[in-house]
TrEMBL record:
InterPro entries on file: PAP2/HPO (IPR000326), PAP2/HPO_sf (IPR036938)
PANTHER family: AT30094P, SPHINGOSINE-1-PHOSPHATE PHOSPHOHYDROLASE
Transmembrane region(s): 25-50, 57-74, 118-134, 141-160, 166-183, 190-207, 255-278, 284-302
Keywords: Membrane, Transmembrane, Transmembrane helix
Phosphatidic acid phosphatase type 2/haloperoxidase domain sequence ranges: 57-181
Organism for this UniProt entry: Natronorubrum daqingense
Protein known as: PAP2 superfamily protein
Pfam families: PAP2
Keyword Membrane among UniProt keywords: yes
């Protein structure tokens, strides 16, 4: 789609003008803020939200995998290079302990289009706007829209994306959000539908990474996060289906609940140990599947406040 050293849509001078206009105080703020669109923030956020209210936020996890699959697939279809522009601020303004975080935010080598950090907030913050019960929908949309736009702006200020990458990322994220909301509205089990979409997109990203002309080769996907996305989506779907069909009745009271929770942690731990010792993509896929199957199951095997209080004759109200 794109190739060569020059971005096909925008001239580097436009981005240079944006970066040079950013004052130092704002440049310092851009570095931590850009992590709102990072997996280091998004993944813990969607997991904790799901654990807090599995029924209300169940679609957030497969929505993330759908985003990642689409983003990675599009990156495989183009070779648009990153801007050769210094960030608005240098690492000397940050404590040494944050040097790794600064480097991760500003030194990126993947394909430029689209901006994943701009795309994923459009999906997840978009879901927050729809699903949260804080204030009014209009106010949530106003705050959420500003957050999405500002995270996108951080990618420009740090000199790691062209404007078209950010605009395209936000547009693609909103498209994913729209499909997710349609699935939830028109399918009886919207979570399963979004998981199926996520698996299809994650598989496409793996296939394209491997060449996109035949059966994916292990060498072509060695060390790729796409493998983790595919494994996580498959594991999450299997756990969700198992839970729905059994109405989440996994355990008996007390000891059964404790044993189930311990069992989930043990299986995750064992597969992680195998993942560290065997770097084959299939093992990585298996580990990711087990981890996200555990993520899906855990809120249904850990006692809730009502599980503890009601037998004692105490209501949580």
């Amino acid at each position: 789609m794109f190739s060569g050293q020059q971005h096909p849509v925008l001239d580097p001078e436009i981005l240079e003008a944006i970066v040079e206009a950013i004052p130092e105080w704002l440049g310092v703020l851009l570095v931590p803020t850009t992590y709102i669109g990072s997996v280091f923030v998004i993944v813990p956020l969607i997991i904790l939200a799901y654990w807090w209210a599995p029924d209300r936020f169940g679609v957030w996890i497969p929505a993330f995998f759908a985003y990642y699959g689409l983003m990675a697939s599009i990156k495989s279809l183009n070779s648009a290079t990153r801007p050769d522009i210094d960030p608005a601020v240098g690492p000397e303004l940050f404590p040494a302990i944050f040097s790794t975080w600064y480097g991760h935010a500003t030194a990126i080598s993947s394909t430029s289009f689209p901006s994943g950090n701009a795309m994923v907030p459009a999906v997840i913050i978009g879901l927050m706007i729809v699903d949260l019960r804080i204030s009014t929908l209009a106010r949530r949309a106003l705050v959420g829209g500003f957050a999405i736009a500002f995270v996108g702006f951080t990618r420009l200020g740090l000199g790691v994306h062209y404007p078209i990458d950010v605009v395209g990322g936000i547009a693609l994220g909103l498209a994913v959000l729209g499909v997710v909301l349609l699935c939830r509205r028109h399918f009886e089990d919207g979570v399963t539908a979004v998981f199926a979409l996520a698996i299809a997109l994650a598989f496409a990203s793996v296939w394209l990474r491997s060449g996109g002309t035949g059966v994916p080769t292990w060498e072509g996907i060695q060390g790729s996060n796409r493998v983790l996305a595919l494994g996580g989506a498959v594991g999450g779907l299997l756990a969700w289906q198992w839970g729905e069909r059994s109405t989440w009745q996994f355990t008996t009271p007390r000891l059964g609940t404790v044993a189930s929770f311990a069992g989930v942690l043990a299986v995750v731990g064992v597969t992680y140990a195998i993942h560290l010792s065997i770097t084959h993509p299939l093992v990585s896929m298996l580990w990711a599947g087990v981890v996200f199957a555990g993520v899906i199951v855990i809120p249904h095997v850990v006692p809730t406040r009502d599980d503890v209080l009601v037998p004692l004759g105490v209501t949580s109200a």
